Structures are given as structure tokens and as C-alpha cells.
Amino acid sequence: MLVILRRRPAAGAGHSVGGQRIFRRRIQAMVSGSPPNKFRPNASTPACAAASSLRAKMTRITQPRSAAVRMSSNATKGDVKLGGLKADGSTKRWYDKVEVVPVEAPGEDAAQWWAIKLGGRFVRTPLLNRLAVPSKMLAEALAVEWDSQVGKVKPTSMPVMQIATTAIDQTSLEYEKIVGNLQRFAETDAICHPAQSPQKLVRLQKKYWTPLLEWIDCEHGIHLESTTQLLLKQPVESVDKVMRLVRTMDPWRVAAFDAMVTTSKSMVIALALYFDRIGVDRAFKAARLEEDFQISEWGRVEGAFGHTIDIEWVRIQLAAAKSVQVMLDLDQVSTQPPDHVLAGDVPSAAETRAQRKTFA
After folding, report:
1. End-to-end alpha-carbon separation of the chain, Å?
2. At how many degrees (to 10) do helices 267-274 and 210-220 cross?
3. Under-50 pLDDT residues of the chain
4. Rounded to an integer, what distance in angstroms lies between the CA atom of residue 112 and that of residue 101?
5. Which SS3 state, helix, strand or coil, does residue 118 take?
6. Strand partners, 123
7. For the segment 2-41, what is each residue's pLDDT rounded down to a tens digit?
8. Residues 208, 278: contact at Cβ < 8 Å?
9. Which residues pair with 98 in a beta bridge?
């Protein structure tokens, strides 16, 4: 049903700018449901009834469709919804205390999980799943991040929470999709494209990159080609072996590993960090090698859009991802991958690549 509101034209020819503004505000008031008192329409009018119907339809359209996340309003009533946080960090801190409380594990898992409460209210992820984790140490780390918010809540300052919500909303529900996206980094790993010059950069790459390629070849039997050219196609069997390594991880560790890969832009660096071949500091230097070389040659740009923020962001993300993995290991959280992986029902590297092209 199309609702048309007529307004009185301004005196003289045409419509005034003020009249157009009032007209727009009336339309916005009807759709949003929270109009200013001055323009509040009569709820009994057909126009207002039509606007209410439109709001109901818009609500149904924007709700998540997945059966895994669909729930009644009563299930989340009173909970804190992370989807309502402003990404720019302008949301004011509204809670006075942060708690870690034991809860039942989801599904058929008999182990105890741990949830976060802010001001006595449970927290919901962007997909409205409860923010609960299988490790008490991890839950305490989440609580520290939330309690460290002063004045305003800044989601970008909580890397552990970002990994936890990724595990709950993504890797636990769409394991193969996340793993398939990581395959791109195995096919086009940055450290397989060393420079030819200058010699100072070549020496740094041999110091930080070459040992990692030798390690993954000797330790895991994965030989990755290197080239100074722009394009390189890795052997399919090597990519398959890399992805088999990734699929030994459970969804929670895949979430941490995903942060390692996307931050370092390298599958090999992330695997070396995950399997303790290198530490966070060495991984940071290997991931930042070319950028840091450019800074040493041309100088550092300071300020809000300078190098410092990006440098520290990489360091924090790698440290947070490795910390999540270590906390899961210390609390002896199961490392078992999903059932379909144990059953061998996984796509090959070629099939994953073809599937990506299909959806592209």
C-alpha cells in the first residue's frame, strides 16, 4: 500500500525549502516510529496504520535467516546486543561491573562453559548468540577487555572479543567457508614472492622468510615454490597438505588462526606461529618486513593516519590470536575438528578454488 501525504504549498510559486523539510520529517517519523511530538501523527489514521505495517515488514526482512541464530524476542530480552555498539567507539560505557559466570555448554557438549555479564546482563553476539566460551581463562580475558573500557566502549580495542565472536558466529557455523577463504593465502603467500633488490631487503627476507619455508618443507613435507615474478601457481598437492593442517584445528582455534593469517598476510608465518616454530615478536617482524624496510629507508609518518597505528595494530592482533590459542590449550579445550572433517568429507584445494569462482 502506497501512502501519499499532501502538504499545503507555500505562498507564491513552488514549494519552500522549509516545507520540503517538514514533509521529509513526517515521512521519516512514520517509518521510524519515533517522530517528534510536533509531527506525531494520529495512531488511528490509515496512514499511521500503514506505516506500522511497513515497519513490521522491514523488521522481518532485516532479521537473520539462519536457523542457528533465529530466536524469539523473549530469548534475548534484557541481554546486551553487540550489534548495537557503534563501531566508531562513541558508545558510552553503561555498565558498572563485569562478571564471569558458568553456563551450560551449547548443543550436546557436556563440558562447562563461561559467559560474560555486563551490569548483570548477558551479552549477545552480532548474530544474537550468547557470548560464552569453553575456557575460563579466555572468559577472564574477555572480562578484562570489557572492564578496561573507560568512558566509552571501543570494539577495536578488544581483539580477544573479536576472535571470540568470530568463533561463535562464523567458524562454529560456517567452518568450511572460513577455511576455504584461508586457502587463498596458501596459494598466494607473500613470503613466496621475495624481492630481487635492493640487497639489504634481500638479506632481511633470507633471514626471516627462508627459514620458515625450509621449516614447513622439512617438518610437514610441504614444498612451496618461490618466485621474483608477479604470478606464481603453487602445486596443488602442497596446497592440499596446507589445508589438511588447518583442518586439524577445531572451530575456536580456526578463529584464532584466521586472525593470525589475515593479519600477517601469510599462511606460512601463521602456521609457524601456531605450531610454536616462532614467537609473536618474530612473526611480527616477518609480517612487517617489507613495510619496516620502507620506513627505514624513507622515514616514519606520524599522526592519526601514520605508520604507528598500523604497526601496533599488527602486533596486538598477532599477540591476541596467539593468546587465545594458548588459553584454549592451557584449559585443555578439545582440539577435535568438526565431524565432517573427521569423516574425511572435505573438498580438495582444486574443488575449493572452483567453488570460489562459482560464487565470485
Report:
1. 36
2. 60
3. 1-16, 31, 34-43, 54, 57-74, 359-360
4. 10
5. strand
6. 80
7. 333 434 444 444 444 555 555 556 555 554 554 444 444 4
8. no
9. 118
